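Supplementary Note 3. Input sequence used for the single-chain structure prediction.
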Amino acid sequence: MDKIPKEVSNTFIAASFISTLVCLGVYTGGINSNLIFSDQNVCLLYVENYHKNDNANAWVFDAYSPSCSLTTTAGYCGMLLLFVLAGVKGFYAYRREEASRNVHFSLGAMCTIWTAVSVVMAAILTAGVNQTCDQFIKSGKTCGTVFAEGFFANDVSKIHNKSINSIDASIVSSWMLVFTWASYAAYEFYCYKHSSLRWW
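The predicted structure, written as discrete structure tokens, is reproduced below.
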């Protein structure tokens, strides 16, 4: 097969960059705004022991998971990698040069690694939300109702309301990132296979 036409290649790169950036924004923003609350950065993934505390007259639970920090850090690193990729592509576009096979291979390898990272992060996020919702459902409430009612850290009067819809959007975006990173990796390896330029 021949190399991908330049117009098609440019369109694919632009679409990949925009879709990945949007997914990263929804993924990271959803976690920051709806799965973390209070000055103590309480994480609502993998909560345990959800029960009614009669003394406080409130529902309480145990939340010690570092998963929110892990998944948001991965999101920020993904954004950094995305802008590095955009910078490399912009550099060659500015110079009107074709990237060498080594460049294509390096970019493909990075995207493959980040595809694997995205799979792990999506699985952590999905499993964490499922466990949290299972805890809430055991109380006789729906997961969405508990998130809408809100949470507190120390002060019962200070309620942090959250949206299950935004959390669901983050989960969907996390799995879409697997597809966007894998698609771009496949594109780079295809270019690597059909490039005639061997050096940097």
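The CA atoms of residues 99 and 183 lie 18 Å apart. The chain has a mean pLDDT of 91.
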